[in-house]
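It is worth pausing here to work through a concrete case rather than discussing structure prediction in the abstract. The textbook approach is simple: state the sequence, then state the predicted structure, then interpret. We follow exactly that order.
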Amino acid sequence: MPDGQCLHLAATENVFPYGCNSSSEPFKYKVLTYTDLTLEKTKHPYGLYVARTLYIHGHTILDFMIWHSAIEKAAGTDGNRLQDQQLSKNNIPIIVNSCIAFVTQYGLGSKSLYLKKGNPQNVRELLEDFKKDARSIKLKVGKHQLEDVTDVLKCFLYEIDDALLTKELYPYWISALDIQDEQERVATFKTIIDTLPVLKKATLTALTEHLYRIQKCSDVNHLDIHSLAFAFSSCLFQTNGHKDNEVSVVENLITHYVKIFQVSEEQLQQMDTENRFITKWKDNKVTQSGDLLIEVYLEKKELDNCIIIRVSPNMDAAELTHCTVGIKQITTTKNMLWSTFEVIENGELERLLHYKDNVLETVLQWSMLPDPGSAYLLVKSFCTCDLMSPGKKMSYQMQTGSMKYKEDPSKLLGGNKFQERYFALRERKLLLYKDIKCFKPEKVLPVVTSKVYIGVKRKLKPPTIWGLTIYFEKHQCIQVMFFH
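Step two, the predicted structure:
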């Protein structure tokens, strides 16, 4: 039953959430927020769990198509209020999150950050794209200019219905400046912020943290608190011009960010660590010849897990892993080793990089892939207890066994089918026999120059999910093997 911005949902006797047993876990009334709903367009109330997956089973194909279409419409932006925007899991508009992340990764060292104006046409087009479907917009260096992104953020804050600091609270913000005692003034600002709606408070917190981070890097970008407050005051209050008292309010928010938003010492240390790694090459040009800015994901390919790392020509996988883990302040142990993996074919294939592998060479080789954009680097942990148990010795004996095999493109008479072959791994060579009775191998493939990936491309229709994909440099072909 829809009620304002909430949808009250109760299951019938035969309808229970996935994994819920009606006899042991009765489904009680739940309140679902539906900021992404469009009742006027669909004429039906559609609700989405926050940070949950909703499983929908249609009785017919038509049912499914209607639901799919309705959810797609509901996922778009419908309105100019803050709550009408597509939101992240932290209740912050995705457009704000994306712009802040881009500026943090590429602009902390810029001396004209938020001061230099972008191209008006580019800014308007990017802002409209964000408003149509923010989730589909991926800001990329080279494609998007820093000053365009910063202007998009300021324009968005200036144009939303009602100011982020709320026009009704304007006199309270200004009157707080008259309080001479700093501690009392900070407490007053905190009280005002606590009266803000949830979305405004979350967005203001993220934005203030961003500005506080920028001024922490003033030794690099030479931007002080006053400059940043001057750049944002009219956006946050949605007023014309830059009034001194409005600038002073924003200055106070940035200056006393730690106290007002109750930031812990651990969070500050984390910010300092991230800033130190991001601005590590502060004395070099952003486009330094030979260096490359690449996206590295931590554990999963998700936007929140993305870190931008500057890769020098000599950086190896071990250094990249150390840098990524260092930014996130992750403690490593002997039993849990963190390493860098190369992932290609839209996540279907991945391989562990040797700690001495050159990262830049690996990334540049992606240009030879059919879809270079689907490749990325992933830093994650894996248990080494079994691999590094005391007393275990490495076996150098010949390994043999039957596996199903296929070349891509196929050169066998069987065409697209997987053919069973007998394999032997001996003296750094992979020998392929027609069967166990044969003495002469059909193929002799050098293992040293090969790249072994876990997984097999789905388009090959493998018989099982257990397999390896091996790229051989000289033969320029792909060998796919599946274990019985």
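Step three, interpretation. Residues 1-52, 281-290 have pLDDT under 50 and may be disordered. The chain has four domains: 2-75, 94-272, 288-383, 399-483.
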